Amino acid sequence: MKSIKNVCIIAFIIITTFACSSDDDSSGDTTGDNQTKIIGSWRYTSGTTNGEADTLSDCDLMDTATFTTSQVTFAYFEGVNCEDTGSETINYTINGNNISLSLNNETYTSEILTLNNTTLTLKDSDGGDVYTDTYTKL
Hints:
The chain is of the alpha+beta class. The chain has 3 helices and 9 strands, in the order αααβββββββββ. The protein has an 8-stranded antiparallel beta barrel with strand order 1-3-4-5-6-7-8-9.
């Protein structure tokens, strides 16, 4: 019983030591803070793939994400005149610096790199590629 307690204490120390980074104040370090800060509408402003800046169209820069307490609605714009091509609403949860989106019985998780009153930056990976998406609060 004593060894289980020691393992739990060591695991807690390791998790708390390595889960925090020096920029926690700018990225939000608790689930509650992130859940509060993320609510509102955000406009897509930039993205990277494997550290290289993505080329974005004027229409891409009109895309928005609007967060409520449990859902996010993405609005997309495409075409010559950047027509509204529709939107989709997805359930989400935040756990620490991770946001998980549930769509079609699958869960997609991104790391929240920055979340403050003006900027939201998310990072995720797929098939070996690393993507970041940055939004500015409206």
